[in-house]
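User: Can you predict the 3D structure for this chain?
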Amino acid sequence: MPQSIPQGLTKEHILRTLTEIDGGLTHPFGKAAGYELVHDNKKYAPKAVVGLACRYSIGRMLTPEEFSGGEAPGQANYVLRKLGFNVVRKGEEEEEKAANKDWTEQEVGLIVTDYFNMLESELLGQPYKKSDHRKALATKLQNRSSGSLEFKHQNVSGVLVELGLPYIEGYKPRSNYQGILAKEVESFLDANPGFLEKLEVAPAINPVQPKSIIAPDLDQIIESPPEKSVLPNATSKPWLSRKTRRRDFAEIDAANRQLGKLGEQFVFELEQYRLKAAGRDDLAQKVLWASRDIGDGLGFDILSFDDTDDSERMLEVKTTGLGKFFPFYVTGNEVRCSEDIPDQYNLFRVFDFGRAPRLYILHGSLRELCQLDPVLYRAVV
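Assistant: Here is the predicted structure, written as structure tokens:
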């Protein structure tokens, strides 16, 4: 079984290796598969870079069979990001070609209605097929390819994330959209005032059962962080528009203590499994569910360990039944903790918990890794 990458790699080791690869260094690693390391406008296979760079840290190259190129702690993508390098998904779809003509108001209205029908089915646990919806739409829209329809659905996701609202997990949010699209989304919600209230109590958003950890595939569960999040729009002026804020689902997540505990339990058991899989049963027995056994307010929820040097890792868990690109709330105490011990601090963002839970990891200071938007102040006079 692949093991964790040994401690000791530095940024300088990686940079020296990149220079050697640029010079034609031969090696047994294949080309980049799912992800690429991007540096100085050049792209590299993350696993090859790490395996070769280990010559400088442990005195020999790691072979491809000895370690994984995944996102979990101790794997190549995680190690590279921890050292400050940019690792992105390979072949990300380019934005819609500028040559495409603008969508008409009628076309946009059809897309928005179709999107909300799918979103309702998804969150209420009702089966549907995106391909069937695209085929049905194609009969109503002229000269629109399947790819163009998919892109426009992603634009709707971008609008919804900017509004702090749920989006369809399979449609990655894209924010480069026509202004008319945002207007049509708002018009739909105005015309269907009970729509969000119905979604708020949907099973996907309010899971009540824990997720069992038996033999999980860490490469499938742990994903890369979002390369670029679509952030909620904070420029509105309700005191002028007289339009109140719609439901804040991130705030609903933060107030859902049951969801929070289920997510913490999931990460607690996942960490125990990871350490046991690395042959460290001794450390697995020491993993502490701190927020439960000590109490809230520590700045982190789980105390775990690095399986290679036994150092402590402080894990803060943020859980949602919604998608990967959805925002989350952090406290001032959690931000201060991440700034004080950035080398030990990890935020585990668990998403899509009600259906197929996955997570990504932010390692280090939250102030440096996230855009922090102040939403509440403590005032004194």
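The beta strands are 35-39, 42-44, 86-89, 222-223, 288-289, 302-305, 312-319, 345-351, 358-363. The CA atoms of residues 346 and 363 lie 4 Å apart.
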